[in-house]
Amino acid sequence: MTSTPMPASTAKTPVAPGSVAPMDAGLQSGPLSSPPPKLATGAPMIAIDNVSKWYGDFQVLTNCTTQVAKGEVVVVCGPSGSGKSTLIKCVNALEPIQKGQITVNDTKVVDKATDLPKLRSRVGMVFQHFELFPHLSITENLTVAQRKVLKRPAEEAKKKGLDLLARVGLSAHANKYPGQLSGGQQQRVAIARALAMNPVVMLFDEPTSALDPEMVGEVLDVMVELAKEGMTMMVVTHEMGFARKVADRVIFMDRGEIVEDARKDDFFGQPRSERAQQFLSKILQH
Amino acid sequence: MNYNWNWGIFFEQSPEGTGTYADMLLSGLVWTIATALCSWIIAFFLGSLIGVMRTLPSKGANAVGTAYVELFRNIPLLVQMFLWYFVLPEVLPQAWGNALKQLPNAPFYTGVVCLGFFTASRVAEQVRAGIQSLPRGQRLAGTAMGFTVYQTYRYVLLPNAYRIILPPMTSEFLNNLKNTSVALTIGLLELTARARSMQEFSFQVFEAFTAATILYVLINLVVILLASLLERSVAVPGQR
What we know:
By secondary structure, chain A is α/β, with parallel strands linked by helices. Chain A has nine helices and ten strands.
């Protein structure tokens, strides 16, 4: 497709060469999550209680305990292999745990009586590699789980999906397929897809790590907006700028342990542990 | 070589009295196609099920799937044909065995079941390879959306896996079609069997098998054409 003039507002969103992305309106105003969750009340939305996990003999998580209050934004960081992605995947039971308990919105994750698909449908998850379903159009990606899991009527699901797509500025791509969008656009669709399920909490697993640098901003914009609306978020990321801007708390993990769990200002001001100090000095020096 | 070529043989009456030699070959072709299609239906659905079982987290499902595949792909097709046709009725309770032996068209039904089960083991491996070639995150994403295991396979994994394995599945279909000729050993009057009887009746061996060869090639070309049309119609925009 030849280049179509882009609206001025999107000039900051360059399109990767070769990708077909003629129109990208960028983040639009209006609510992303509905109904907007209330601000932090202190009641834990996610409670991680003394969680340990092993892969065979190898212990990947050791006695992890933390809580995420309703409306709180918690950034989880740490060196690679520290268990941060594993921890976040335990929250919606994508990974089983061998010891401890996790409670999400008053539902126990480790409990035979828990309807895990139902629990997961209320926990939005965004992956490093987007994981849009490649054989489905963008609209179908946004609606398939609404229809098959939440049993919403097709019309209602479509309206919800297209509203969110408009909100992330990608209405023009509704009938395209994931392979036709840039990485940043795919990740915004992935966020919209998760939001279409009306989640009570959103989990982000390194949502910008697989993106070209110029596309990181457009994804973070959506996440910042979501945080401002009061969505409960647990975000594994190395984007310290994002953490500074919107995080309430920062959790630092190393070798499967939660080494530091501090208010943002304390963490960036004066991390107590030496390991966190080293980590921060390494990632902030460039 | 002292051989009397006679290409007009196809239009001569066959000693069976039911038409010309050409009619005889064509009726064989019809049985070949019917056997291939019916056995493919078994192979496709059973093979998909077994292939999926081998990708499930359940150890039991895995073991059953593995046992099936190793049993059915490691015994020669010809031996399987004999086992189904000659041995099975003897080892079953007598009443069942007799019922099987008296089945009208027994060679057809036996051939279909035998080929279906044999090819299923091969289809299962294709399906397993297709599913395992998908990024691990696809399964996670489906699960995280709240899909059950069944829904994850139905809406996410299988539609992608089938697209990936369409070319080797076409080969399996062609193999299955050609393997129908093995069923002549249990008395199915398919194309190869018909070419043989034409040769025995008329002694025109070259004409008979030239015709059979051409018919096999033509039917396979039609399959390949249909498969490439299917491949094009399910291709996902923006991929490859």
